[in-house]
Design brief:
The protein is an alpha/beta fold. Helices cover 36% and strands 20% of the residues. Strands 1, 2, 3, 4, 5, 15, 16, 17 and 18 form a 9-stranded mixed beta sheet that branches. A 5-stranded parallel beta sheet has the order 10-11-12-13-14.
Length: 456
């Protein structure tokens, strides 16, 4: 049994009492936390790796509840456009030009960026090459809920994506049978519903039934833009949430992403059915979705987490920055400085997110018997000091640069800012080469924003 002892840290446990252990230690044995706080020396084996964390902060690994691995190579291809242009003229042509290798490189790069910003678990919103995603996740050592991007109708879909409900359900069941609980249990397979624009009622009902039977989650963009509700009212007679309610699709295993355009009644329906929410502040502002009513949801006791969304809509997979934005935008919207305070934001990125991932008994807090998923923050930088209020500083002053080390499932993924699971320089070259190749294949031509003079 391999042991790692992290000692002399400021440990933010996020346990039920939200205890902080100042000068505390964590003993990791294999992939679990064996002891925390004041560690009995008799528990430590003679060959344990001992790592002094004095002056640094240990947090549970951050959990990104909405990301698109397959969009990482598309960073910058869809900036400053509306959502439907973003989808139909930029991102869909780009993603549909992928092959397995492009998906693998994109997924690996996205995982690397998340590791460097303190993420140990993420929920993937849906791509076309789930097999490549699984390969990347297994190699990179993260924990993930992976989904296929599932669509059986809608305008503007690339021809290769046109599928029937039967085909989509069969494909997802095959992925579940092959990959669920693989990579030492780190990989889970969820079911994806891209948007109600692209999902028939039949597909939604059958997806919910299958997810319930297999005890897994459903990942879906919901009430993302006002036009979505308008379209569904015209074609099906209800808003998105009301239609999902009518179909019996609301439930504790549904992760509703964005949820910008909800009425009071729809928020109450989320509370009634224990629907989980992923809030994506940067993407919501950048693609001009609007401001989700997060304070109202939190006040109702809805489980709200934080996600980054994909590289073309954010454009960073940086959960440290998302925490900062989450607190700021809702203070501005409500004109209330106490709205979504730092400690609540930290809960959203850890223990609340673990509930969204259906993994609250395994991750989200640092407690004996839970998985050893944690990060080490180094606050010793000019932008982070002085440290009068450590919790506030984590949310308001620190960035991904302060994430010094990342451990998932008891293994170092990054140590002292060095990625240990991939050759970062080699990966960067692959990203540059493959992204240019896919962009050319997709026939996406972006105009120069300023005159460019090539000097030969």
């Amino acid at each position: 049994m391999k042991q790692i002892l992290l000692k002399n840290a400021y440990i933010v446990s996020m346990n039920g009492k939200r205890e902080i252990f100042n000068g505390g230690s964590i003993l990791i044995e294999d992939n679990l936390i064996k002891a925390i706080g004041k560690v009995d020396l008799n528990l430590i084996k003679s060959d344990a790796e001992v790592y002094d964390v004095k002056g640094k902060i240990i947090l549970p690994g951050l959990i990104n509840t909405h990301v698109h691995l397959s969009q990482q190579l598309g960073r910058g291809i869809a900036d400053d456009v509306d959502l439907l242009t973003w989808l139909r003229e930029r991102v869909w042509p780009y993603e549909s030009s992928f092959d397995y290798e492009a998906s693998l490189i994109s997924s690996t790069a996205c995982c690397a960026e998340m590791i460097k910003s303190g993420v140990t678990t993420f929920l993937e919103a849906g791509g076309q090459y789930v097999e490549a995603m699984a390969e990347a996740v297994e190699k990179m050592g993260l924990r993930a809920g992976l989904s296929k991007s599932v669509m059986d109708q809608g305008e503007g879909l690339p021809s290769t994506w046109v599928k029937t409900a039967d085909q989509e359900l069969e494909a997802q069941k095959e992925l579940f049978d092959k990959y669920h609980n693989t990579a030492d249990g780190r990989i889970k397979i969820w079911f994806g519903l891209r948007t109600i624009f692209n999902n028939s009622d039949d597909l939604i009902v059958r997806t919910k039934k299958m997810a319930d039977e297999l005890e897994t989650g459903i990942h879906m963009h919901i009430a993302e833009i006002a036009a979505e509700n308008d379209f569904i009212k015209e074609t099906r007679g209800n808003s998105t949430v009301e239609q999902l309610h009518k179909l019996g699709a609301l439930g504790k295993n549904l992760l509703a992403v964005h949820t910008v355009w909800l009425t009071d009644r729809e928020i109450d329906l989320f509370r009634l059915y224990d629907v989980k929410v992923s809030h994506n502040p940067a993407a919501a502002m950048k693609v001009v979705l609007g401001f989700a009513r997060i304070p109202e949801m939190l006040e109702k006791g809805i489980n709200v987490s934080i996600g980054t969304d994909g590289a073309p809509s954010n454009n960073r997979m940086d959960m440290m920055r998302e925490m900062y934005l989450t607190s700021l935008i809702h203070k501005g919207r409500t004109l209330n400085p106490k709205s979504v305070p730092a400690e609540q934001v930290l809960e959203m990125a850890t223990i609340h997110a673990a509930k969204c991932a259906l993994l609250e008994n395994e991750i989200g807090s640092l407690e004996i018997g839970k998985k050893a998923d944690l990060i080490i923050l180094n606050p010793n930088s000019l932008h982070s000091l002085p440290l009068h209020d450590p919790i506030a500083n984590i949310v308001y002053t620190m960035s991904s640069e302060n994430v010094e080390s990342t451990i998932c499932d008891g293994k170092w993924l990054m140590k002292e800012r060095n990625l240990l699971v991939v050759d970062e320089k080699e990966l960067i070259e692959k990203v540059k080469e493959k992204s240019a190749e896919v962009k050319e294949r997709a026939k996406i031509n972006l105009p120069n924003r300023f005159p460019v003079i090539d000097i030969l």
